[in-house]
Amino acid sequence: MSIQLLHDEESALSAQYEKLTQQPLMLNLTRGKPSDDQVALSSELDGILGDDYFAQDGSDTRNYGGDICGLPEAQQLFAELLDCRADEVLVGDNSSLTLFYQVLLFCRDVGLVNAQPWRSEKNYKMICLVPGYDRHFSICEQLGIEMLNMPMGDTGPDMDAVTQMVQDDQTIKGIIAVPRFSNPSGVTFDDATVRRFAELPKVAADNFCIFWDNAYAVHHFVDYAPLLLPLMDECRQQGTAERTFMFASTSKMTFAGAGVGCLATGSANLAQFAAYRQLMTVGPDKINQLRHVRLLKNKSGILALMQRHAVPIKAKFDETCNILATQLQPHPHYGAYGSWNPVQGGYFISFYTRKGLAAQVIELAKGARVKLTPAGSAFPYRRDCEDVHIRIAPTFPRLEDISTAMNTFALCVKLATIRQWIHTL
Ligand SMILES: Cc1ncc(COP(=O)(O)O)c(C=O)c1O
Q1: Which of 166, 272, 290, 348 could form a disulfide with 204 if both were Cys (CB 3.0 to 4.6 A apart)?
Q2: Which of 82, 97, 176, 214 gets mutated to test ligand 1 (max ligand atoms within 8 A of its CB)?
Q3: Among residues 270, 297, 324, which one ends one of the domains?
């Protein structure tokens, strides 16, 4: 194929692009947020208590008091979600990320049960799976925890490599994982990976901890989506439960801004963490916990609500993937424009451009009124060394806006790629 034909294609795409820069609205594909329809599924929460503010033990949730680990009925509900025992659960306030932050502070300043705090040593490092959740990385950065990248594979990271790393380097104090429908790769760990995670603290530093952020534990939108082996069962068998913290929340089940976050760890470690947290708060928002218990009731109640979320979410993911598949068919002479991972749950799609193009595509999309997450955000220190990854979050916009935004995105990918071919061929 002559270079002239590529130039012709570039001119045609540029003309289309120019028109798109006149689009009136800024469309936003950056935020992994539930849509208005989704949050409305739980509108019943408001007012669900009527005049009955009393917990199962008869206490009045409007007043001070109660256990720092939350209402026992809420602990039971979240134990079902996290696949562990109620005495391993602490139920907090509206964000699991706050708990995640507090747990890092706890590991650094106080220490896991029967272990030295990290700050008693000069260096402490964290293994971060990439691409990953930007806020995990900014928190580590803020707390001065050095981050080490580990690529995410199709069923989790390479566990031989992870095991070797934590064995060889005792300054590695933890690993962060989003084990089901990972943000943003959509990967779910297979059983072997979960088992290998449970073994890690046995070969790692004494104050090593697994940070298991199961934010998308029940967020599948197809039937028969891959299931996750319960980590805590495996950890108990390996004797590593006290070196594991698991997190989840109802942010993407009920109200994203007013849900309930929770964590779980071995019961001795939980007691130590609860004593630490006791000084930060007079106690969690028990009224919200009770509202959630009344609405969701148990795991079946959670799953029934999640089936209702699955309908609009699936429609949006299908639309996104269909547009990518039809608009980005490989070029007949030069090959693929990029690749992406079809997912069965979670809130994100990872799109991979050809090397060196992600930032340019994001910039082009911005010019055409489509906002994407900044280049590099899914990597520690915002460094995507190959400049290939783009995170797409299709849940929040309306379906028709997704079509416009994704068609625009595909055009930007094609334009950037053809320009690269022109310059490099
Ligand atoms: C992996 C992961 N963890 C935690 C959160 C935030 O959860 P929460 O709303 O419970 O703080 C998100 C939100 O996008 C997430 O993707």
Answers
A1: 166
A2: 97
A3: 297
State in Å: Cα 213 to ligand 1 middle: 8
Q: What pLDDT does 25 receive?
A: 81
363/8 Cα distance (integer angstroms): 22
Token code pair at residue 149 = 């990248």
Spacing, Cα 59 to ligand 1 middle (Å): 31
Q: Examine the domain organization and report whether 334 and 224 are in the same domain.
A: no
- Structural domain of residue 335, as residue ranges? 3-30+304-424
Instruction: Tell which of 297, 313, 330 closes a domain.
Output: 297
**In a domain? residue 357:** yes
What total of structural domains would you count in the chain? 2
pLDDT of residue 15: 98
The answer to whether residue 348 is domain-embedded is: yes
Q: Is the dihedral of CA 191, 193, 197, 199 positive or negative?
A: positive
Q: How far is the CA of 420 from the centre of ligand 1 (A)?
A: 36
Question: Which residues contact ligand 1 via a Cβ below 6 A?
Answer: 32, 95-97, 133, 178, 183, 213, 215, 249, 251, 261
Residue 172 in this model has a pLDDT that exceeds 80 = yes
Q: Give this prediction's pTM.
A: 0.97
Considering the domain architecture, whether residues 243 and 313 belong to the same structural domain is answered as: no
H helices within 48-90, ranges in order? 72-82
* Separation of alpha carbons 365 and 351, rounded Å: 14
